Structures are given as structure tokens and as C-alpha cells.
Amino acid sequence: RSLTTAARQSLRIGLIPADGIGKEVIPAAKAVITAVGSDIPKPDFVDLVAGWECFTRTGVALPEETVEALQNECDCALFGSVSSPSRKVVGYSSPIVALRKKLDLYANIRPVISVAPEAGQKPAVDLVVVRENTECLYVKEETLIVGENGKEARASRLITERASRRIGQMAFELAKSRPRKHLTIIHKSNVLSVTDGLFRETVRAVPSLPGVDGKYSDVTIAEQLVDSAVYRYASILPLRAESSLIIELLRLFREPEIFDVMVAPNLYGDIISDAAAALVGSLGLIPSVNAGDNFVMGEPVHGSAPDIEGKGIANPIASIRSAALMLRRLDYTKAADRIDKAVDQVIREGRFLTPDLKGKSTTSEVLEAVLSKI
Ligand code: GGG
Questions:
Q1: Are 19 and 52 in contact (CB under 8 A)?
Q2: Distance CA 196, CA 138 (A)
Q3: 96 Cα: distance to centroid of ligand 1 (angstroms)
């Protein structure tokens, strides 16, 4: 289904909660989409399976029927979280990594935005990580041999001009659409001069591509080595930190305001976006979309959180905001704005917050609070 926004009579949304708290937060996102139904085509949800639990039950982590339903029947999707084991399991491979490749969702867009104390004020943190989503070390070409030093494990890292160029184009487009229009390229080409060197040069060359014709002339470009980028995330949190240990930890993040859009190869993008979540208080707040040229899949940045699974206290906000991002990407701006505004109000009021934000509310109490504001 590659219908345009205007041509859709209904919006078919694939739901893949997958593992752990994904099963608790994706229903919250579904309820919120239903609540903004008057501003989108009639939502029609398609329940789909994937994940570690699916693998343990059926022997397949990403059933072909799930991929086919997404490709042929759905306009967009929401994915929850997956609990891949940290050891090699024969026959198992991460379904989310596979799904991003199969649907060619080559960009993972992760906004990290704090909620200002008053509506209309500038947020203290407002940046977007644009993570390349299909290659780097996530091609998962690993070998293990026994050599003269004992076991020898190797992983190959793939960086192509094509993937670097298209993620670069996505990042320039995004930077152009934002007030600050500033793009930082994240790499480590002082050590990995061939792979990261290709990424850096290819992204830098986007404004000079044929046909671009000065389109990005108002975008300023900077670059940062990935380690120093993490150091330069600033934190507003040390001011509130009570112990010197916390202050030490938070010194990792020093100047978040220098960043606007950050574009990075897959692994660095994964790490810096999780790290950036510390700037706004919880990973449970950070949404993302996996975006390609023809499909979009919302996904909270957090994982399956086995420590709180089943307790009913998972923060639903990352999934709710992922639904808003997905709708925004499909040009349902009014619906997306309604959701984001409702979430902002709930956070600002601070009455209904889950324990990751030092609150005592349950997932459903936070959801009810958001629904009451929509
Ligand atoms: N929603 C993000 C998520 O599930 N994160 C955990 C993750 O990336 N897992 C990779 C995997 O388990 O395959």
C-alpha cells in the first residue's frame, strides 16, 4: 500500500509489540492513535508477531507473514521492543535489525527534546539523532576461529557510499526544516579512516551533489569525533545532582546546546541516542521512527526492560510519542501535534509519572492522563 496521504480512506497500522514491555506500551500508543481518529483516516490495526518469545514458541523470530503483511497490507507500523539474548543462539537473529533491512528503513530518526517548564518556552535540550539503520557493524558478519592466540573473533563493518549518501540527504533535509539548521557529522575517522572516512566525506559532499543546487546553503555543517561528541552533550542535570558520583557521571554531557541534528553510522547513532536520553531524564521518553522512502515504522528507543516487565509501570510516553512521529512523517500534523501537546502537559503537570521519572503512576494511569488531554 503506497497510497498518498490524501488518497487514504483508512490508515492500516501494523502493530508488533514483540517482547517484554513492548506488549504493555504499544497498546497505549494504539489507544492514543484511536483518540485522534478524527484527524486521520480511520485507523485499522493489524496485529503482527516477531521477537525472542515468538522464536522460542515457533522457531522463527521474524515470520514471513509479518514481513509480507507490512509490505503489502500496511501503510505504517509500530514496533515495541525485543529481548535478543546476549549469547549466540543457532537459528536466531534480531528481528528488528532484519526488519529495518527488509523494509529498507534506512534512517532511524530519534528526537531528544526536553519539556520546558511553561508552554511556549524553549526546551533546554532539543536535538535529533539521525542514525544510519542498515549497515555498519549491524551487518552482523562475525566469525570465530581458534588461532595461535586462542579464540579469535572478528566482525566486519560495512559503510557504503550509497547508504551514507541517503542518510546524509535525510539529515540535511531534517536540518533544513529546523530553526537552527545545523548538522553535525559524527564519526571516528582519526582511527577508522577508511570506513568512517567514507561516511564523513560522503555526507559532507551531499550539498554538492548534482541537482541539489544550493538547497542546503543555509545549513551549517560541523563534525565531531564520536567520543568527544558524547563528552560535549551538556547536562542541565548536574545542577540537581546530589552526589558527587552522579556529578562525575553527568560530566559526560557538557554542552547539548551545540547540537541540532546529528548524523551517525549505525552503532554510534545507537549509543549516542541512548546516552542523550539521560539529558531529558529517562530512556522511557525517547521516541523514534525507522524511515525509508516508502514506509515508516515508529519504535520507542528503549528495549524490552525485563526487570519491570509485567509490573504495569513501564513508561508509555516513548511509544505514544513514536506514534506521533509516525503520523507526523505521514503528514498528519494536526493529529501528531495533539498527541505531543497532551504528553507535554502531562509531563509538565507532573501528577502522573511512572517510576523512571520518579513518579508512582502505572502505565495505564499515564495513558489515561494523556487521553484526558487529547
Ligand atoms: N525498541 C528498541 C529495542 O527493542 N531495543 C533493544 C534492541 O535494540 N535490541 C536489539 C535486539 O534485541 O535484537
A1: yes
A2: 15
A3: 7
pTM across the whole model = 0.91
The residue type of 229 is: A
Cα 147-148-154 angle, rounded to 5 deg: 35
15, 53, 81, best to mutate for ligand 1 pocket (most atoms within 8 Å of CB): 81
Q: What does the pLDDT read at residue 281?
A: 86
Which atom of ligand 1 is nearest the CA belonging to 52? 12
One-letter identity of residue 235: S
Query: What's the number of CA atoms in the CB half-sphere (13 Å) around residue 90?
Result: 0
What is the position in ligand 1's atom list of the atom closest to the CA of 19?
Answer: 4
Going by C-alpha positions, the residue among 37, 53, 62 that lies closest to residue 323 is: 37
CB atoms under 10 Å from CB of 91, counted, come to 8
Residue position matching grid coordinates 487514504: 8
Point out which residues pair with 296 in neighbouring strands: 291
- Could you report the per-residue pLDDT of 242-289, keeping only the tens digit for each? 334 344 334 346 677 788 999 999 999 999 988 888 888 899 999 999
Please give the Cα distance from 59 to 368 (Å, whole number): 37
Could you tell me if 70 and 48 are in contact, meaning their C-beta atoms sit under 8 angstroms apart?
yes
- pLDDT per residue over 53-96, tens digit each? 999 999 999 999 999 999 999 999 999 999 999 999 999 999 99
Cell of 129: 539523532
Helical spans, DSSP H, in 59-207: 64-73, 95-102, 161-177, 195-204
